[in-house]
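lol ok so funny story. i was supposed to be doing the assay writeup but got distracted and ended up predicting the structure for this chain instead. priorities right. anyway since i did it might as well share w the group, maybe its usefull for someone
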Amino acid sequence: MKFTETPLAGCFVITLDRIDDERGFFARTFCREAMAEHGCATTVAQTSMATNHHRGTLRGLHVLLPDPALPHHALETKLVRCTRGAVFDVLVDLRAESATFGQSFGVTLDAEQHQSVYVAAGVAHGYQVLKAQTDLHYMMSVPYGTGIDSGVRWNDPSLAIAWPLPEEVTVSERDAALPTLAQWQSQHH
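and the output, tada:
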């Protein structure tokens, strides 16, 4: 596994080390030791899958915050991989103490390249579907429902995200109603 750090500290694009032969290839998609060497969470509490039928579908930008009412609350980390189709995957730094707070990073993930994105705790995640019938696989460090669902609006001008298909966006009502970065910051800091 090759880890390439993004401009957002603690977030990585991970490329597989493939072993190819006439049958196909074999590659590790998760390695506790390699993850730990790069400061990534090694606990996998849940895996999930998202299927997207239509090109232009946009999900995010989501972050799961710790719920102080729960005895063992923690920030969520994610390892996200596109297993079919392609997406433009985006991370937004929502960590108040971070030098890159409010900055974003985007990368295309597709099933042919077999790359993953490691989303550090406190970083929002979202994506826009580039090909119809696209699937993503998630590995999360905490189970869904054990935190406070939050996020920022995908089209907040202050984030200046260059979504590749701006004329084809399909977004849920929930995601369209997420706060801007400034609103989110005033609610959470």
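Helices lie at 32-37, 173-176, 181-188. The radius of gyration is 16 Å.
back to the writeup now i swear
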